[in-house]
Write a structure and sequence with these properties.
The chain is an alpha+beta fold and 498 residues long. It contains 14 helices and eleven strands.
Length: 498
């Protein structure tokens, strides 16, 4: 008997074809039996709202992020209700409706003396503020959105809720006047504060658009590329938009009913605060379940310190040094974190200093003489980076990593691990004498070089994507060292957008 099985993208059997058996079967017999599998409603809705090939086409944490029903590594089930993503979409839609009503009230809807031209001009000014904010935010935040995707995804919702609050406050600010005399604030007709509130609302909404757009793109790439199969980024984005549209639609329909019962100022702000709290809480839970596999500075900090402690234990009892997996790291990761901070992860929040990656060479060279500079360059002659103390704050634990031309993500990781070791050796207080600093840098480089190869191999085995990078932010500078004849030597600096 010859059987042909047909499956869809997710591996589900949709059709079976079989030939005749026994005496009736012939060598050239045609297919005579067809078994078509019926499509149930659950599979239909899954195909509409989930990416093609789910679950093999996305990362394991995709469904947890979509449902956002639990933080941590506990696996979700279909019966876990309520769906917190539905709750946050409902809260956001309802809060947006209340803010829109407040803006219309401020423009004078229902007031015969209100001017439509005045409302249009205010809207234009608000739009100008938003567009200018978009340009500035994209310049300053653009390169930080990928390595800090989880932070900016939640921060985008904070910006959005701030804009909603400003919109809701705007009609009541028209009755407040600011003066230069005590008590500085008094009641009286004025539109300046309302216009300022609306402009700030447009600016925060623009910040939300920049942060949400970049971080969501990074998360979409993560979900599409970390599955067992090859995910379709376009399909994943389209299905996410479908889910958000349906949830927002239900929120708006429910909001039209709730709005009839929420009309006083006290009731409006009470409900609005509750909605914003629920919205941010739901989004926090959603971000917590994401398991990123690229090493940003915070994750590199914790993973390196754990490996270092494990390596020290290996020297004592012979156990193998272990590298934290992305799943283990996700439970230890903080959503809001200073990316430049160097912490001792083995101690309870012990700040050791700060380090900046891709700094300009003048950040370290202005405090060094020519002979001292040569000694520093000699230490890092075989490395693709230079690590030294800040020239602007010589007595503080502020370090700079200057990258050489041709640097790669593993070089960034090694430089960051070296900065961590240097901060640990200095214990937050760098040596004052140049020779002591030089010896400390040299000794810590030997230590990092000894551990880095097994650390890199262990990180790849644990599932980390080293080549993706994640430690660089902004527009880093790169340098190339040229040594001439005699005493001539030069350091050429180039600005590279990475």
């Amino acid at each position: 008997m010859l059987t042909i099985v047909e499956r869809d993208e997710s591996g589900r059997i949709t059709m079976e074809y079989s030939t005749a058996t026994g005496r009736r079967a012939k060598e050239n017999s045609a297919i005579i039996a067809v078994d078509e599998r019926k499509t149930d409603w659950s599979h239909f809705f899954a195909s509409v709202f989930l990416p093609a090939g789910y679950p093999t086409s996305v990362s394991p944490d995709y469904l947890q992020y979509v449902l956002a029903a639990h933080a941590g590594n506990v696996q979700l089930t279909r019966l876990q209700i309520p769906n917190i993503q539905a709750m946050q979409a409902f809260c956001s839609s309802l809060a947006g409706l209340m803010a829109s009503r407040a803006v219309l009230q401020g423009h004078g809807v229902g007031n015969a003396s209100a001017s439509a031209t005045h409302a249009i001009l205010i809207t234009v000014v608000q739009d100008i503020f938003g567009r200018l904010t978009t340009i500035v935010a994209a310049y300053y935040l653009g390169t930080s959105l990928y390595p800090e995707a989880k932070t900016y995804r939640l921060l985008a919702d904070v910006f959005n809720d701030v804009s909603i609050l400003l919109d809701a406050l705007s009609p009541y600010l028209s009755a407040v006047t600011i003066s230069y005399k005590y008590p500085f604030v008094s009641s009286g007709p004025s539109s300046s504060l309302r216009i300022l509130s609306l402009c700030l609302s447009g600016a925060f909404r623009a910040l939300c658009g920049v942060a949400a757009g970049g971080s969501k793109a990074a998360l979409t790439m993560h979900f599409a590329s970390d599955g067992k199969g090859t995910g379709d980024v376009g399909d994943l984005s389209a299905k996410d938009a479908s889910k958000e549209t349906v949830l927002a639609l239900f929120g708006m329909l429910a909001g039209t009913v709730v709005m009839h019962y929420v009309d006083s100022a006290r009731t409006t702000y009470t409900v609005l605060v509750i909605l914003i709290f629920c919205h941010l809480s739901a989004n926090y839970l959603a971000v917590r379940v994401v398991t990123m596999r690229s090493l940003n500075r915070q994750r590199a900090n914790v993973v390196w310190m754990a490996f270092r402690s494990s390596s020290n234990a290996q020297n004592k009892n012979g156990a193998a040094a272990l590298v934290l997996t992305p799943e283990e790291m996700a439970t230890r990761e903080n959503i809001f974190f200073d990316p430049s901070a160097l912490y001792d992860a083995t101690m309870p929040r012990t700040l050791l200093g700060h380090c900046h990656v891709g700094s300009a060479f003048k950040a370290v060279m202005s405090s060094l003489s020519t002979s001292q500079l040569r000694q520093v360059l000699d230490i890092f002659s075989d490395e693709m980076y230079i690590l030294w103390y800040s020239a602007e704050a010589p007595d503080s634990s502020v370090l700079h990593i200057c990258l050489k031309h041709g640097h790669t993500p593993p070089d960034h990781l090694k430089g960051w691990a070296h900065a961590q070791e240097l901060a640990l050796a200095s214990k937050g207080k760098p040596p004052r004498a140049f020779e002591e600093r030089l010896d400390t840098v040299r000794a810590t480089l030997v230590r990092v070089t000894e551990l880095f190869a097994p650390f890199l191999a262990g990180a790849l085995t644990a599932g980390w994507k080293i080549e993706e990078g994640g430690l660089l932010a902004g527009s880093p500078r790169t340098i190339s060292v040229e040594c001439g004849s005699g005493d001539e030597a030069g350091v050429l600096e180039d600005r590279k957008n990475v």
